[in-house]
Write a structure and sequence with these properties.
Layout: H1 6-12, E1 20-24, H2 36-48, E2 53-59, H3 69-77, E3 82-90, H4 97-105, E4 110-114, E5 117-118, E6 121-122, H5 137-153, E7 159-160, H6 177-190, E8 194-198, H7 213-222, E9 226-229, H8 242-252, E10 256-261, E11 264-269
Parallel strand pairs: 1-2, 2-3, 3-4, 4-7, 7-8, 8-9
Antiparallel strand pairs: 5-6, 10-11
């Protein structure tokens, strides 16, 4: 897809921009250790791709493995980039008290709410992709976006993670995804959440960014803010295609990016 013509690119160039990556997994899937040395590799990669801010947001089930003192050490070692501390929280409707505890015990800059399970099925895990055969695809999309709506209504999160993750293996709804996602987008707007442009989708079987262009355009029409993320699980993926995501946001009409500090959203030039 051609995103920008020459005139559009010329407008984008020369504009003061703030590049951020707010979805970085310093531990990955326990593929890295939460040491100053290994975390420094993530930050160094962020500097190499000109990030102004890097947000570490490991999965909540690795919370006990996080050494928060290392974030302070990173700030001292790399004063030229802002280090933000978040957490990606697995939304499970019957297990939400832990989210309250996270917010009370730890001083996070933001919480990402993500849906990876429909009922007890981890739909985005390659080992369980056969589960799609058990669903009528529109019903599955409705169930998924229903969970996204429930998550947003809790008002316990700041960012919606990979909004249309349900498409990860290329299973497309028969009904327009705009129609199926519309109730969730309304709730996201009403509850004041931010949606991330997550570049990892370009590297999944679906080969499409999260959210898809038409959903991103719908977010813009509703006035839903966006932030940028790579969903990096290894250092070399930090900031991957963040400039491409920024160009996409500009195409849609966005001119600001959401950043966070102590759970407060701060809008900066995109």
């Amino acid at each position: 897809m051609k995103i920008f013509g020459k005139m559009q690119l010329s407008k984008l160039e020369g504009v003061s921009k703030v590049l951020v990556d707010y979805h970085v997994h310093g531990i990955g899937h326990q593929t890295s250790r939460h040491t100053l040395a290994e975390l420094s590799g993530f930050v160094e990669r962020g500097l190499a791709v000109n990030l102004a801010e890097i947000g570490f947001a490991d999965h909540d089930y690795y919370l006990e493995d996080l050494k928060f003192s290392n974030f302070l050490l990173l700030e001292k070692r790399f004063p030229q980039i802002k280090i933000k501390v978040g957490l990606e929280v697995e939304y499970l409707p019957d297990q939400q008290q832990s989210v309250v505890n996270y917010a009370e015990v730890y001083s996070f800059d933001y919480l990402i709410g993500s849906v990876h399970f429909v009922n007890e099925w981890p739909f985005d895990h390659p080992d369980y992709r056969s589960g799609y055969e058990d669903w009528e695809i529109d019903d599955l999309y409705r169930a998924y976006f229903g969970l996204v709506s429930q998550m947003a209504r809790t008002k316990r999160f700041d960012i919606v993670g990979h909004l249309d993750l349900i498409k990860i293996f290329g299973h497309r709804s028969r009904t327009s995804v705009l129609e199926l996602a519309a109730p969730a987008l309304q709730v996201i707007k009403q509850c004041g959440l931010t949606v991330e442009i997550n570049t990892a989708g370009w590297y999944k079987p679906v080969r499409e960014v999260y959210p898809a262009l038409n959903l991103l355009e719908a977010c813009f029409r509703l006035g839903i803010p966006i932030t940028l993320s790579s969903d990096a699980h290894v250092a070399e993926d930090v900031g991957r295609d963040i400039n491409k995501a920024r160009e996409l946001a500009w195409q849609v009409g966005y001119r600001q990016v959401a950043t966070f500090e102590k759970r407060q959203r701060i809008m900066l030039p995109l």
